[in-house]
Amino acid sequence: MRSMNLVAGLTALLSCLATAAPAPGTQQLEARAGSLTQVQDFGKNPSGIKMFTYVPAKLAAKPPVVLVLHACAWTASSFFGSTKYGQLAEQHGFVLVFGQTPKDGDCWDVSSDQTLTHDGGGDSTGLANMVKYALQKYNGDASRVYVTGESSGAMMTQVMAAVYPDMFAAASEFSGEPAGCFRTGSVRGWNSQCAGGQVNKSPADWAAQVHKMYPGYTGTYPKMLVWHGDVDKTLNINSFNESIKEWSGIFGYSGTAKQTMENTPGARLTKYIYGDRLQGIWGHGFGHVVPTNETEALTWFGILCGS
Ligand SMILES: *[C@@H]1O[C@H](CO)[C@@H](O)[C@H](O)[C@H]1NC(C)=O
Ligand SMILES: *[C@@H]1O[C@H](CO)[C@@H](O)[C@H](O)[C@H]1NC(C)=O
């Protein structure tokens, strides 16, 4: 067990060191990262979502690809502008793909059977095709593809991890819901039971629901980092525990934290470690949402070298 952890730790360290970090001058660090570029024809896009990219001046050889998903009422560029992902891409040479819902203000579809099925024809299919396009266009490293998002984008992050487990190595979701919790059967439906914290399932039932999204898949699922605020009134605080149960079911973990770290990675945050592939960060006094922490997400992905 201990040597397994050591091997996993060394692998993560080597992969984060492998990402080119073109030592930036102060000027470059201070320069505001530019803007997103829209890509029109990225492949099959059944629900009409939009693709934007940010490609740094110095791309790493075989760059990692990070998919970033906005909240309802946000756009790709408003979310890009509010995060440090552009600057961090300049420093570490990875490719950013920002998805955007069909109409401004729309939430991601995390409720229809199309989106909750591998290549089922919903938003998840379009997002997967954006990633495939970026991997091909920039000679990306298919083993280093990651997904993150806030709120509706966090729900979609969990959906992408469940529906395309073969595509993503890790995910970091900020204030979302377990994959499948929002299912209504309709496109872009609002599931008030899930949002209200009334959906309770066992780890085994959650895992069965996830497995149904990609029947026959027997490979590994992406590492999952779940963030949630303990005074969230939009997506009930129960979401945190249900998400932990879902991914504990997938990874075969007990769901009880093996380690608890107060004020980690920052003030009013408690980190719970459930296993090598699952962590949760509980925000004390945070409502909706716990703000994106780009460096913690990129460290979880292995793009930045953590402590
Ligand atoms: C949710 O998880 C947290 C952290 O493990 C725990 O302190 C809390 O009691 C759990 N809440 C419920 C309702 O189970
Ligand atoms: C974000 O995470 C980094 C570690 O990756 C930590 O140093 C920083 O304090 C965190 N920021 C906040 C606001 O919690």
Main CATH class: Alpha Beta
User: What is the fold named in CATH at topology level?
Assistant: Rossmann fold
How many DSSP E strands?
Answer: 10
How are the strands ordered across the major sheet? 1-2-4-3-5-6-7-10-9-8
Low-pLDDT segments: 22-32
Rg result: 18 Å
At CATH level 2, the architecture is: 3-Layer(aba) Sandwich
Structural class: alpha/beta
End-to-end Cα distance, whole Å, is 21 Å
What ligands are attached or bound here? 2-acetamido-2-deoxy-beta-D-glucopyranose
Helix fraction by DSSP (H/I, runs of at least 4): 25-40%
Q: How many H/I helices? A: 10
For this structure, what is the CATH homologous superfamily?
A: Alpha/Beta hydrolase fold, catalytic domain
User: How would you spell out the order of helices and strands?
Assistant: HHEEEHHEHEHEHHEHEEEH
Provide the number of structural domains.
1
Largest sheet: 10 strands, mixed
Portion of residues in beta strands equals 15-25%
Shape: globular
How do the strands and helices of this protein lay out in sequence?
Blueprint: H1 2-18, H2 26-30, E1 37-39, E2 50-54, E3 65-69, H3 76-82, H4 85-92, E4 95-100, H5 123-137, E5 145-150, H6 152-163, E6 170-174, H7 192-195, H8 203-213, E7 223-229, H9 238-251, E8 259-261, E9 269-275, E10 278-283, H10 294-301
Parallel strand pairs: 3-4, 3-5, 5-6, 6-7, 7-10
Antiparallel strand pairs: 1-2, 2-4, 8-9, 9-10
Helix pairs in contact: 8-9
The structure holds 2-acetamido-2-deoxy-beta-D-glucopyranose (2 copies).
Keywords: Carbohydrate metabolism, Glycoprotein, Hydrolase, Polysaccharide degradation, Secreted, Serine esterase, Signal
Enzyme class: hydrolase
Subcellular location: Secreted
